[in-house]
UniProtKB/TrEMBL annotation:
InterPro entries: RdDP_mobile_element, RT_dom. This is Putative tick transposon. The chain crosses the membrane at residues 115-135. The keyword Transferase does not apply. It comes from Amblyomma aureolatum. PANTHER family: ENDO/EXONUCLEASE/PHOSPHATASE DOMAIN-CONTAINING PROTEIN, ENDONUCLEASE_EXONUCLEASE_PHOSPHATASE DOMAIN-CONTAINING PROTEIN. Keywords: Membrane, Transmembrane, Transmembrane helix. The keyword Transmembrane helix applies. PROSITE patterns: RT_POL (PS50878).
């Protein structure tokens, strides 16, 4: 392992000044830990994200967070472990991404509804969701494991 992928820090504070100071202290500690453990932080890919209630009008754009003396880019949304978070936790981007991903499968199922029993269609629907979820989470799994899963899926269909 060379990179510190998928590391997430969650902090809370009473105000933005306190949050900025606390976050920079934690980032310094983490940078030291990564260095001691021979991990690399890619500051260009590291994001600064502040979420809050829409009613809480905070001035988060002035926050300067640094890691290894590099200013972290602030973003209004980010994807973490397959889930898209936005600053107000509204989930519109996540819902849109899920819809885009499942639309072709839903269309295919819709095209077969006159030829396949509804109970079978429901089983296919839920099995495909599980397979797509697993593949999206473990996309780098060796091809033979995915083929084993698909072969099992085909055998179940034929029974």
């Amino acid at each position: 392992i060379m990179y510190a992928d998928d590391t997430c820090i969650i902090l809370t504070a009473r105000n933005m000044t306190e949050l900025e100071a606390s976050a920079n202290i934690e980032l310094d500690k983490i940078a030291c830990w990564f260095l001691e453990n021979k991990l690399t932080v890619n500051a260009r890919k590291t994001k600064n994200f502040i979420f809050h209630s829409p009613q809480n009008k905070i001035c988060a754009d002035k926050v300067e967070l640094l890691i290894n003396n590099c200013l972290l880019e602030q973003t209004n949304s980010f994807k973490y472990l397959g889930v898209i978070f936005d600053k107000n936790m509204h989930w519109q981007e996540q819902i849109s991404a899920v819809y885009t991903k499942i639309a072709p499968g839903c269309y295919a199922l819709l095209q077969t509804h006159n030829y396949i029993n509804i109970d079978i269609l429901l089983i296919l629907y839920f099995v495909l969701i599980v397979i797509c979820y697993i593949v999206s989470k473990v996309g780098d799994v060796h091809k033979k494991h995915i083929l084993t899963l698909l072969e099992h899926y085909r055998n179940v269909q034929l029974e």
